[in-house]
Amino acid sequence: MAAYDSILNVDEWISDHYFTTDETKGESFTKRVKTRTKEWADLENETGTLSPVKRFQQYRGDLQKAFATDADAETTDGLIRKAFGFGASSTKNYNRAGEQLSYEGWHGNAGTLIVLNAQPDEDVNEDNLVSLSVTGGVTPAGKDPQPTKVSKLIGDLFLAQEPPEFIVVIAGTWVLVTERESWPLGRYLAINLQLAVERNDTKKAGELERVAVILARENLERAADGTTWWTQTRDESQQHAVKVSGDLRDAVRESIEIIGNDVLARRGEQQLPLDAIDGNDLARQSLRYLYRILFLLFAEASPELAILPTGTPEYVDGYGLDRLRDQILDPPVTDKARHGTHLYDSLQVLFAQVNHGHDPLEAPDADTDAQNEGITFRNLEADLFKSEATALIDEVKLSNDALTRVLQNLLLSKVSAGKDRGFISYATLGVTELGQVYEGLMSYHGFIAQEDLYEVAPKGDASKGSWVLPVHRADSVPQDSFVMETQQQEEGGTAKVRRQHPAGSFAFRQSSRDRERSASFYTPQVLTEFTVGQAIEVLQEEGRITTSEDVLSLTICEPAMGSGAFAVEAVRQLAELYLKLREDELDEQVDPETRTLELQKVKAHIALHQVYGVDLNPTAVELAEISLWLDTMTSQLKAPWFGLHLRRGNSLIGALRSTYSTAQLKKREWLTAVPRRESVENLAKAIDAGETRDINAAGRIHQFLLPSSTWGAAADAKDLKTLAKDEIAAMKAWRRSVTGKVPTKEQTKKLTNLTARVESLWAITLSKMRIAEDQIRRDIDLWGRGTEHTAKNIRREQIERELLHNEDGAYLRLRLAMDAWNALTFWPLTATDELPDLDEWLSALTDLLGTEATARDSAQTLLGRADNWDELVQLERTEIELSGARKIDTLLANHPWLHTVKNVASDQGFFHWDLDFAAVFARGGFDLQVGNPPWVRPRTDLDALYSESDPWFSLAHKPTQAQKNERREQWNDDPAVREVVYRGLAESVSTAAVLTDVTRYPHLIGQQPDLYRGFMELTWKNASAQGTTSLIHPESHFTEKKAAPLRRGAYLRLRRHWQFINELSIFDVHHLVGYGIHVYGAEQVEPLFNHATSLYHPATVLDSLSHNGSGSLPGLKDDNGNWDLRAHRDRIQTVGLHTLEVWHSILEDDSVPVLESRMVYTVNTEAASVLEKLANAPRIRELDLQFSRGWDESIDKKKGYFDTGWAHSDSWNDVILQGPHLGVSTPMIKQPNPTLKHNQDWSEVDLEAMPADFIPATAYQPDRTAKPTYDADYGTWGGISAKEPYRIAWRTMAAGTGYRTVYPAIVPTQAAVIFTLTTAAQINDPRKTVTVGAFMSAVLMDFVVRSSGRKHVLPEVVDVLPMPPISERAEVRLVTQFLRLNCLTEAYAPLWEELMGEAWSVDTPLRKDEERRAAQVEIDAIVALSLGVTADELCMIYRTQFPVMRRYDQEDRFDANGRKVPKEIVKADAKLKDGAQLSEADRTWTHPQSGVEYVYEYPFRQLDREADMREAYARFEGMAGGSKV
Hints:
MethylTrfase_TaqI-like_dom; globular; 9-stranded mixed beta sheet
């Protein structure tokens, strides 16, 4: 380990493991030192300038002499400054709380580094460095110098208006390095120069080189390119911590299995029953136990928070986790030691002290005069430490052997060949990394194996989920499917073996289906910070936050919480903002030495009182609470309880306080009309005014009392129509009976009465919740603000007992009614016999809610005066008794179908915002909503459902549809399988039904039921009048035609829109995935928002907002082929009504309102101006093309029209083309390989050697035996088969950042396509068909499609592409070149001969690469001219929008014969010395498809597309005699 006593890493200023490890394979400080010193050495060789290492070595001897002889401070200081490149001190000024002060110091480049001097004492050491006095003191304006501690001046300078990044302090033989963000945490580097120069260790990356690298001016000040070496190094250290957290996730997963299996083993040894143990419960308790340990590790790593008495010798010796670090390095060896529980018992003592607290002065026999009676633990009284949280573990304890392995996992870095295994740093591994650990486990579940099981996954890779397979069925899946693990062998060494879960063992695994459904992708901190920061800026811009008190009045919500990362970040940023605003208001500043503590108190106040969150996963709620707690811990915060604010539930499925008029019942309008949401704020005002009713809701009917059109949604599961035929018929009949009739007068009367009961119960619930909210507050002293002391008259236990868990109370009665309304949408097909008719529904609601009577109005008036909890509870009991509502036990007995309601509600977690967070909505809603909601869409994946029982459905290699159907039949009689399939399909169909129900999500009508869209509308509805919402979510609503209502709503609410592409893999999803950060406010009259697209990192946005507009325009990639991160003012576009009008003219027809126009994505404003030029051009739709999507790859395959199978057909009539077959203007550029492994298992076709009758291989074959109507069912155009004419085909999937977006080519008659291709033709005019194809092949048309942001190039996209009239000469050239590019075989002869009037031959088409490229360039130029786009603009579009094409153009070489030289020959040629050439043999290459041998002749040339475009443009411009072709 590279640790030196001369270099002290105080409180882990940088991760200890990163800083001290010698490994160079991964990231480490050692590797950074070696790389930096090599850079300096290379620069020294080039320029002759002394490197910083040599500079230090030059002064080392003088320094050693000065230290040894106690030279005067001025001499020593001068030598140190010269050795590390610092300048001499001079007087510098700064402002503090409106006062100007001066000090002696030196500033580096742009003030990013400050060097100070301290007066060293005789006994200066690392412990008293920061308490030394600053040389010369600090001088207020007009006054004498004041003695000032180093710590005080550093804190002041870091809080200045323009603070430095680093401050260096020279104190005799010591040098201190501090950094702005870590200084408040008490972290810094201290270097004892005397020790280093005396030892004179000159090894590579040894002590002297490390000191030189640490202290060199060149590394501490900002360089000319805007980077700082030390900032980058600390960032890398943090990334190292993030990677450690990834390892820690695996360690936690493994540790859960260790604990679970130890619990089962010990229960067996103690003869305790195992049958009643639920695997998931055991997993949750194991996770809680691990988080107890993690909590203590974090608390110990943050001594400044005073959570644990870490500084006392008694704690270190008797309780500290350092003892455990020592013990795990020496694991138990005897059976007795391994089975003992010493480690468990030790931890339990610590857990108890932390939870219950210990104050030695409160002990009965305490000696109050004693100087050292003992150590003090604060009582946290946290849910995490409750005994019931780990009851299964505590019942049997944990063995030393199990806990040793667990602690090794938590404390030591991952075992890896060639790397040190160091202790994990919990000082640098923060709460956000802890969240990453958790979110990676969200889709895992625990179970106890009932038989011996293997774990299987695609190719044995369980990272994306896995399945279990009984050992006796091991032969039923491909043999590469088994998950392998390294196991110690008895004879020594290790071996890879199949991961097995023996019968009776506990397993904790990730279900592939659950992973997809949970959409649990951790949001990296860089995006969390940016998303929250953008929202807070908008809150300030729009006046919601102007004062520090405004910060403390915000209500904050993370509606899809996960680990609470966004809530934690909101708390952090708002706490900082509070202090900043309060400092400005008071014109004074927080003492830098107490700022961290003061900030922590503000964070605690905000987290406890202002943060709300919801998540469907109950463990997520627990761990989000832990995350908030860990990040806001303060010695003043005892027993924090988030139970009213952080709730388990499905944010998207529930009921609101929405109503209909009684008139809307008469024509069943409530089934399709949008209800009116009744403000809870109005109800609160009525209560406060002592009124008996909210008059706004009087006489109306609550939506959740009426039948819903979504009830019995499972009956619409198409995949179950055969399997559950009878159940579906029964459910449909019931649905018709309850929704098909208007309620009778008697039923309407009951509904009216029930509505009154709902309002009464809601008023009671709201009153109790408001008091409860007040009572859970904690008194926390905030800087600059008087403490508001809250009288605590009720305890948490009362709130839980008399509100949250009181089934006979008003709150849970309302909840059960709402749950029942939602449960009937999710009703299981297996319980159709329980479904209630309308009379039973109303009867059950009456028994549940009671009957309203005017005689009780006097009791109701008490509500406004009942500000006492006990009075409210008594009023509630009286009111419910008088109403005649049944006890819940009686209710369930009388209406047994409600048992199923409760089960469904428990499973689905319905959440009722207006009720569950009634106190928030009484104030108007949420002021700040932030998060990254799920990106998934509920879908019915039969294979995934059957895979839960038989993994073959997901692991078999391209099985035919017949094989799948046959195998399903084998399982359909299995009750367990039927239950999984029924529930899985019903859940997906029911969720989709809710999200497409116009009464609940009117903006989503007629759209795909993406969950993120539901969250958009939900957060809009839940926002306060001045509220701001900032969400990370996909953008398909901006480009999907049917999403017009949602798009319109978004445009009118957006304030900022930043679209990102995941090319830097910031998210753990595919690199091509696009997403946006969307900041919404209240609806505006007209759209107005900032907008930028094709971003890769948030820093680009922040820097672009302040950019001066200089420099070249950014594109998708920079000139070096890297994704373009350059900031530029022209990236930011302001979108208003005019912009939408331009987008509309490009993408829409007159039937679409401007506010519903789809979005255009351009990377800079100049590209946007090119699109504006195209706005008024005629469109392709004017040609009246016919379109076909061909066969559907999934649906039509299931129907039996075709199946998987490789073949070379003899006739085009048997060909089914796929997307990869086509290139740009090339109808058969590739063909599939016989192996059909995956979608990239294709090979290029040799165009030069292509025979006249060539037909490419295909991966799908028609099945006319199963479907004799194969040809007739393909579709028709105007009475002819859609296969009959020559057509333009293109890849349906748009590759927005690839070589090209659109790949159009002509396909022959009779060939079919699947929907990875789309086809079109003008069936009466083949010339127009060809002209359309030529236009579509042009780079300018590709840019239009790319800018649309569409993921699929559907007919509606092609229809709106511009296609102006062109001159006959230009059209002839356009058609000729496009035909010569496409007519590669005799299948095209009729088309060629019809349009060109001459016979086709094998020499007709262009076959060599260079001539084909030249023809395409001509097409690009002609199309640009026709649209009035200049040559400069055409080249700019190519340069900024098509980086992959540009890179290929830079890499490609063409030989003397115009052939593109294979890459391996280009690489071999590039390795030669100047003037040398490859031999003919080395230049010979055999095409793998044709087997033809080619010799590539010198010279090898790089072509210039921009020059060729300009030349072609000029040539055709001259031919046309002007700018119009």
